Amino acid sequence: TNAWSDNRLRRFNKDFMFGVATSAYQVEGAWNVDGKGESMWDRYLHTRPDVIADGRNGDVASDSYHQYKRDVEMLRELGVDHYRFSISWPRVLPTGFTNIKNEKGLEYYDNLINELLKYNIEPMVTLYHFDLPQTLQQLGGWASPLVVQWFEDYAKVLFERYGDRVKYWITINQPSFCFEGYGGIMAPALNSKGIGDYMCLKHVLLAHATAYRLYEREYKKKYKGSVGISLSLNYGFGFDNKTENEEAAEIYRDFTIGMYMNPIWSKYGDFPKTVKSRVLKKSKEQGYEMSRLPTLSPEEIKLLKGSADFLGVNHYTSVLVKPQKTEKFEVPSFEDDIGVEISQSVHWPQSKSSWLKSSPFGIYRLYMYINQKYDYPQTFITEQGWSSEPGLNDRTRVDYLREYLVAVLFAIEDGAQIMGYTVWSLMDNVEWVAGTSERFGLYEVDFESEEKTRTARLSALVYKRIIQKRIVEKDWEPDNWKISIT
Ligand code: GBH
Questions:
Q1: What residues of the chain score a pLDDT lower than 50?
Q2: N or C: which end of the chain has fewer CB within 10 A?
Q3: Per the record's keyword annotation, is Transport included, yes or no (predicted)?
Q4: Closest residue CA from atom 25 of ligand 1
Q5: How far apart are the C-alpha atoms of 474 and 402, rounded to whole Å?
Q6: Is the CB–ligand 1 distance for residue 383 below 6 Å?
């Protein structure tokens, strides 16, 4: 059946959790409904509609604020074990602070959680998936050290309110958003390359750790939940096995994997030595007094070390790495600090997103790398997905999903600690600045329709079958999949 490279039948355990993910800004819509405050993404896309590929922002999105019962129905159709969604900070705390708690907003998540539990679907809640309250952005946002306290206060509201029912918490989705927000086209789109991005990163990590310690101190005994953080961990291979390319890849991995994992999972904590010394050296050469990479104090290192019950792995693709040959990056910048050139193989199948190609062995290699470096950490794959054109016959997504799941089975066989797997995404949504021009859904959403009608794609049926059987069948085809999933 699943003979990819030999004839062994590999299967996922009964307790391996299969699920799907979304995030608040990308699916909820209702951006100003029932007392919700403005997020930095609302502000950004309202003032800069020109940056959105197809002009569609998150004002209405997939309208999950009103359609959540249909969403849960889809989860039941799929037969998933868990649903990963995020809470919109400005929906529950419109000012960003705890002075005003928006009861309507809090009730929305109560309703969603209760609906999930009614059908035995485990909620996995992300506290922060990119949508900072605009009020807090105006006060400096993630570049300000004060955000650590703001985030702790926000986390407390959520742990208090939902802790009795939510057992899986993810503090922050992808701290690497700092590099896209302070040197790219993600909100707040402030150009502070090589400076603001590193400041943001430090505060994101501390906010995570502070929320983790809060749960550990005040809720863990009572509620017995676990708290993790999701990192964007794509794998960097040497372009080929030339020593200089292997070395460049190692540096790239230090900056894109070690940067986040070292402070939390390594024995001594802190950012990787190579990262610290490279940024210091460049900073001095560039005329700065100190390194542009902020230091972590001994107390901060201690706070961060061990501050996760599990690692959330968001893995989509891989890259090939060579040393930088031409001076093509801005100075200073994260890219210039790393000093490598990345590309992807022409042999890897291309999705609808420029950055996303299929290279399933990458997830296997990633797991071997983190197992060796961080001694087999407990993980949960919290995002993996593929973008396509609109349309129900998403054969390329089916291929991607199957090949990656087989690679995951190989990783498990070789010792990787993986509690579950989560497809990005349950349904089409607003892909940030790509709008709805890139579709990641197992369900297609008709954005032209009033109810944002959802229809299962071929991949939804294949995923349902994988969840049922706990194996990956190379050739299984549903009959009549265009008619109904149930
Ligand atoms: C995920 O990040 C996000 O968590 C999720 O919200 C999103 O829907 C999903 O990606 C799909 O887009 O445009 O060339 O500058 C995955 C890691 C890092 C991938 C930033 C896209 C931007 C590349 N992402 N990257 S580019």
A1: 1-3
A2: C
A3: no
A4: 355
A5: 7
A6: yes
